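Bug #77: duplicate submission created two jobs. Keeping one. Sequence:
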Amino acid sequence: MKKALFALFVFGAFMPNLFSQKTDSVALKAAVNIADRIIRSTPYEFINTKTKETYASVKGLPLSPDVKVKSDYNDWHYTNGIMYLGMMELSQKLNDVKYRNYVQKNMDFVFNEGNLDYFKQLYDQAIKQDDPWNKVRRLSFHMIFRNKRLDDNGTMGASLIELYKTKKDAAYYKYIETANEHLLYFEPRLADGLIARIWPHEKTVWADDIYMGVSFLCRMGSLTGDSKYFDDAANQVLSVNKYLWCKEKQIYYHCYHTDVKENGVAHWGRANGWIAMAHADLLTYMPKNHPKRQAVIDNFKQQMAGVCRYQGKNGLWHQLLDKEDSYDETTCTAMFVYALAKGVKNGWLHKDYIHVANSGFRGMMTMINDKGDVSGICTGTGIMPSLSFYYNRPTESNTMMGEGPVLRALVEMIDAPKYTEINANDQYAKIVDRRKTK
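Kept job's structure:
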């Protein structure tokens, strides 16, 4: 019995090293499993939610608000924008067009197969009725036409820019220009230019919007070469510190209400994840000689140093970062793993941070099964003035909210460097008697 326990102890002691040696193959397999499951699960069909009839096309169908896309993977939603970015990054990493082609097929399903006009007619009808904004929410693709907030166009526009780089489609570019116009001229902002929504209070700063805006801005800058987009994106990630950064805990609040000059109650995990991903995406596209680049790097270092303090013993981060009694949450963990791994590989963060990323990766893998199913995903979450709201948000499996960040994290971990440190035995000879050197 003692021998068995000793053997188990020895195996357990070496398991982390064994796992880390296999990180690249484990990450690759998990990413492919998730991506392939998503592809198999996307039907490119419509359904009448009352009659349950399904259609391959809406051409010739009578107008009905009960007709919707059958799968959420085909709808127009910011969570799909993140997932599409992950798919295209996987394609690039593997030099395999399969996953980019999936994104193109989805975009063409919206723009180039005659489906958009059907839902535009439904939208035009609904917007003229009583309580129009609630009525349009029932419609598939409504966010394309509404175009009133970053959730409508930010990340979907960002993913469309990435796709446009390889397929110069006029329908894609027309939408990119529409999203660009909204962000530059219509998106609510504070006097200093920081994006701020007009709910739940007038001019509330949301951490979520840092990514929704920056993901588009930095790619628009890359597409056009116009520095104004990088200037704006840098302003977002640097100015948000004035409103959301908690010096005491070294992490971000979810929000700030400018009318009452108060932060919200929560250091929400995914809110911090959005800002981490915004830094990483911006630094990926930002010119090396941009005057604000070093400030963005310094800000990124500050955030990651704070985030690392709250990693759980299992490698996962909590739904509420500073509350260990809140549940382990997959999306924020994936966002931090993505940002940490990308930061180390590009030299924005010290190489030691890869140890944190590896621990997060091992924790994240406990939320992914061998079929590519992803669990522990906090559902969509607004802002409420009570911690119980965040504690009790339900979790989901296999939703784009989590699949996108997980895919991005796995792609970065495929070729992540191994953790290394200075060996003490190699250093002892360097310790000498200073009296002999005088």
